[in-house]
């Protein structure tokens, strides 16, 4: 990955606090502009926006006007924005996360992702996260890889035109579910500029054998986006901090050592019923963990 200062994952020496964001998919009971206001009031640095049926629906008319208004609102609040594309039923109201890039006809998914790229560009978001989807039953792995590579190549061309970097997220239960899967895709694509990993730190506990700090170190040069939550070993359930198996100070120290300067986005999509309180607790927890990461262990 390039290391220029304007690259979203640029490596620079940093003593500043991590830039902590919160996912709009955890505020689905709020209007999006009000969610941004709440998060700014709590002290967040940014928001990971999920274009979905209730938040910047990419299929509704008047979208450019709404995107411009949200970008201006975020700017007034001092919030950085990024885009992630985990909407569940925005394409097909009957099937979760369907169709995918791996289907025989990936056109609906490609169309959704292209719409999200235009949203990201309009918001001034430097990155957009995406994932593979599950492999179709009965399809040989080589054919699945071929479909994924061809679809991702198409998106890379669009992303380059919009000036948005793609962060590919290994997702439990999907075809690419590990860091090794991401690395294989990257290599099959030829390690293109503007393509890196969106590392969900909770997923590392779910699917990786290595410790989470080691996972961060492994992909440090490829980090485009980071998502964070607690999780229990081997169980894909996004949990509030302190209720899972992650020891956070070493993880945040690893992010600092990697020189990552993008948003660290909290992803708690099933906590919208108590979003303001959960967001307040989450930010306080991560700031305490970040402080602990900077204090020598013998002094704790």
TrEMBL record:
Molecular function via GO: isomerase activity
Native organism: Murinocardiopsis flavida
InterPro entries listed in its UniProt record: IolE/XylAMocC-like, Xyl_isomerase-like_sf, Xyl_isomerase-like_TIM-brl
Lineage of the species this protein comes from: Bacteria, Bacillati, Actinomycetota, Actinomycetes, Streptosporangiales
Listed name of the protein: Sugar phosphate isomerase/epimerase
Swiss-Prot/TrEMBL keywords: Isomerase
Keyword hit for Isomerase: yes
Residue span(s) of domain Xylose isomerase-like TIM barrel: 38-288
Gene3D superfamilies: Divalent-metal-dependent TIM barrel enzymes
């Amino acid at each position: 990955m390039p290391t220029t200062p304007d690259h979203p994952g640029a490596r620079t020496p940093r003593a500043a606090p991590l830039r902590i964001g919160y996912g709009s998919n955890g505020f689905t009971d709020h209007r999006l502009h009000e969610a941004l206001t709440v998060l700014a009031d709590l002290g967040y640095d940014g928001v990971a926006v999920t274009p979905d049926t209730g938040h910047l629906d990419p299929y509704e008319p008047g979208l450019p006007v709404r995107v411009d208004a949200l970008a201006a609102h975020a700017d007034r609040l001092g919030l950085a924005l990024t885009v992630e594309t985990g909407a569940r039923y925005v394409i097909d109201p009957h099937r979760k996360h369907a169709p995918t890039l791996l289907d025989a006809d990936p056109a609906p998914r490609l169309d959704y992702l292209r719409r999200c790229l235009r949203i990201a560009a309009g918001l001034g978001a430097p990155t957009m996260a995406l994932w593979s989807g599950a492999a179709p039953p009965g399809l040989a792995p080589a054919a699945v890889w071929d479909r994924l590579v061809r679809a991702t190549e198409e998106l890379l061309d669009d992303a380059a035109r919009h000036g948005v970097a793609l962060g590919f997220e290994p997702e439990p239960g999907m075809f690419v579910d590990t860091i090794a899967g991401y690395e294989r895709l990257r290599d099959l694509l030829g390690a293109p500029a503007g393509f890196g990993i969106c590392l969900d730190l909770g997923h590392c506990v779910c699917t990786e054998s290595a410790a989470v700090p080691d996972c961060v170190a492994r992909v440090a040069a490829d980090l485009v986006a980071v998502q964070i939550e607690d999780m229990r070993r081997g169980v894909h359930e996004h949990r509030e901090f302190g209720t899972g198996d992650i020891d956070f100070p070493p993880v945040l120290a690893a992010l600092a050592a990697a020189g990552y300067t993008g948003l660290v986005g909290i992803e708690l999509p099933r906590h919208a019923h108590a979003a303001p309180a959960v967001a307040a607790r989450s930010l306080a927890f991560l700031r305490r963990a970040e402080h602990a990461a900077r204090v020598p262990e013998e002094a704790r």
